Amino acid sequence: MNSKHLLPLWLATAMFLTACHSRTHNADNVSEGDTLQFHHAKLLTLTTAGETTWVSIRDPWDSTRTLHRYQLVPKTAATAVPQEGYTLVRTPLERVGVYSSVHCALLEELGCAGVVAGVCEPEYINLPYVQEGVKNGRIANLGNGMDPNLERIMDLKPDALMPSPFEHSGGYGRLERLGIPLIECADYMEPSPLGRAEWMRFYGRLVGQGQRADSMFHAIAGRYNQLCMLAANTEQKPLVVSELPQNGKWYVAGGSSTMGRMYEDAGGRYAFADVPSAGSITLSVEHVIEKATRAQVWIVKHHGPIDRAQLEADNPSLRLMKAQMWFCDTSRKRYYEETPFHPDWLLENLTAIFHPELGIKAKRRYFQPEPPLLEEEK
Predict the structure, then answer these.
(1) Which of 164, 207, 262, 342 could disulfide-link 112, Cβ–Cβ 3.0 to 4.6 Å?
(2) pLDDT tens, 215-261?
(3) How far is CA 347 from the centre of its chain?
(4) CB-based contacts of 42, cutoff 8 Å, min separation 6
């Protein structure tokens, strides 16, 4: 990107500072301590008192309830008495069973790839260290994330497991009776891209990398907000539609979701911005096409080779959509591994697509126009 468009990093970071501390009394009956202020994440509360860090995660689906509470105590502490209502976690974690590729990628970036002792569905994790670890037996294959192999988990003896909670899931069944701390990764339910990314500050403290995670996030937030200001000053806002129909249904991001916000932050007009959902919603193909016929940009993620001709052959009604298509092949691009905790990288790519007049040269191109660029053009 042309440097004249960018604010100095120190100024952008100062404008969106996220690391200040204050003295407060925790509402969960925790004694007075230092509370880490989250200016973007809405579901997290962290309070440190002495050697203990108290963590509360608000239920994303019911704001009157708490999803989970944790009591983080260093392994070097002489004693660790569990408080009622809290899950005791001894830190730093050294052996973890990780359910998703995104958290595997974050742990690697935090310099803690070695703590990943087991993963779910490694065939969908596009990370060399995970693939190699599963191949040589260093990392255990824990099976399906919705129904992991309990025998393998017991053999693994992890310090913790990192599953993602879902609404109306009914809990974790027999897994909850194993006595292994379950770190519920509800970051994906944050209502903003930076809100989700800020969870790295919690995860960093689990593996003894709190300061490193704070520094990473401050840089990401500064870069993200510089791009937001650039996009906000553009005159034309292209209408954006996303994803593809599957089995007669079209799953799109709600207007209050991280991706809904991302399209707006990149200077686009998201076709479903008026849908008040923080997650994915299911619409009929006819309903989406009705709005999509007026769209200028069509953002598509897929796994493996695909093109417009094939899509239209499978679903002729898609011929009514005249938007420029941009494809991301997630079998080749580390979209799912990188973008949740690096929304600045994705925002840069989307802003360059929506506003080529800004002259942004995205360092990471997750999306390519149809026809895909030749290898030498990338």
Answers:
(1) 207
(2) 999 999 999 999 999 999 999 999 999 999 998 899 999 888 889 99
(3) 13
(4) 58, 190, 191, 195
Structure-token match 């393998």, residue found: 152
The vertex-169 CA angle with 166 and 174, nearest 5°, equals: 115
Question: How far apart (Å, rounded) are the C-alpha atoms in residues 373 and 186?
Answer: 36
In the block, which residue shows the tokens 């050697």?
A: 51
3-class SS of residue 39: coil
Q: Looking at beta carbons, which pairs linking 254-260 to residues 24 or more positions away fall under 8 Å? A: 254/278, 254/279, 254/280, 254/281, 256/191, 257/191, 258/188, 258/190, 258/191, 258/192, 258/193, 258/195, 258/196, 258/340, 258/343
pTM: 0.86
CA angle, 56 then 152 then 115, to 5°: 55
Nearest 5°: phi and psi at 278? -90, -5
Asked if 108 and 129 touch (Cβ cutoff 8 Å), the reply is yes
d(CA 89, CA 208): 12
Q: How far apart are CA 266 and CA 227, in angstroms?
A: 8
DSSP secondary structure letter of residue 335: H
Strand partners, 331: none
Q: Count CB neighbours of 83 within 10 A.
A: 14
In three-state form (DSSP H/G/I as H, E/B as E, the rest C), the secondary structure along 339-371 is CCCCHHHHHHHHHHHHCHHHCCCCCCCCCEECC
Q: Which domains does the chain have, with CATH numbers?
A: 237-377 (3.40.50.1980)
Q: Where are the beta strands (DSSP E) in 50-158?
A: 52-58, 66-74, 87-91, 96-98, 116-119, 140-141, 143-144, 147-148
Q: Tell me which residue has tokens 């149809």.
A: 370
Give CA–CA dist 253/279, Å, rounded: 6
d(CA 46, CA 31): 12
Q: Kindly list the strands in the beta sheet with 368-369, ordered across the sheet, starting from the edge strand earlier in the chain.
A: 269-270, 239-242, 297-302, 324-329, 368-369
